[in-house]
């Protein structure tokens, strides 16, 4: 008797309201399926590598590698000294000490190296400033002696 009563009430529902309810229920079921699929999938984790990274100042022996990076980026090699990032002995990124945009190999993951290059460049700038101040203080001291 109860089932017959609810069926009759369902028949009395406005047809558009019924369609809207069905669409809402379908949308909710689709969201539930997507959520279930996302939870069932293993989490994407960044691959952990044991690649050796070295940061150093450039030398004349690095000109070919710097030219290669510049060509890959469609730019010219910045003038002046650069801090280099090497991964397993290959130069993959460079940052000018005088400031400016870094050069980076677009075919290698280098985003994690750029903060390291900036940090090393700032350390070198501070060390250069400290040496200059010490040299100035020593020359003043020697002048008084």
Could you name the ranges where pLDDT drops below 50 across 5 or more consecutive residues? none
What gyration radius follows from the Cα positions, in whole Å? Answer: 32 Å
Element order, helices and strands?
HHEHEEEH
User: Mind telling me the CATH superfamily name of the largest domain?
Assistant: Gcn5-related N-acetyltransferase (GNAT)
* N- to C-terminal distance: 115 Å
Biggest sheet descriptor: 4 strands, antiparallel
The strand order across the widest sheet is 1-2-3-4
Secondary-structure arrangement, i.e. CATH architecture of the largest domain? 3-Layer(aba) Sandwich
Provide the CATH topology of the largest domain.
Aminopeptidase
What is the count of structural domains?
2
Helix content: 40-55%
Oligomer category? single chain
Q: What's the total helix number? A: 4
What overall geometry do the principal axes of the alpha carbons give?
Answer: elongated
Content-based structural category: alpha+beta
Give the topology.
Elements: H1 2-12, H2 15-40, E1 53-57, H3 63-73, E2 82-87, E3 90-96, E4 103-104, H4 114-144
Antiparallel strand pairs: 1-2, 2-3, 3-4
Offer a quick outline of the entry.
The chain has 4 helices and 4 strands; from the N terminus they run H-H-E-H-E-E-E-H. With 145 residues, it is α+β, with helices and mostly antiparallel strands. It has 2 domains: 2-38; 53-139, 3-Layer(aba) Sandwich (Aminopeptidase), CATH 3.40.630.
């Amino acid at each position: 008797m109860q089932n017959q009563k609810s069926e009759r009430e369902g028949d009395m529902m406005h047809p558009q309201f019924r369609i809207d309810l069905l669409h809402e229920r379908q949308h909710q079921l689709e969201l539930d399926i997507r959520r279930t699929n996302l939870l069932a999938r293993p989490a994407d984790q960044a691959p952990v590598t044991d690649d050796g990274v070295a940061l150093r100042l450039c030398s004349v022996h690095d000109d070919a590698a710097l030219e290669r990076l510049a060509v890959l980026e469609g730019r010219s090699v910045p003038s002046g000294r650069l801090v280099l990032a090497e991964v397993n002995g290959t130069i993959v990124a460079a940052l000018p000490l005088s400031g400016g945009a870094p050069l980076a190999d677009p075919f290698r993951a280098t985003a994690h190296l750029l903060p390291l290059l900036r940090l090393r460049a700032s350390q070198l700038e501070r060390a250069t400033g400290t040496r200059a101040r010490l040299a100035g203080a020593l020359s003043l001291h020697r002048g008084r002696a």
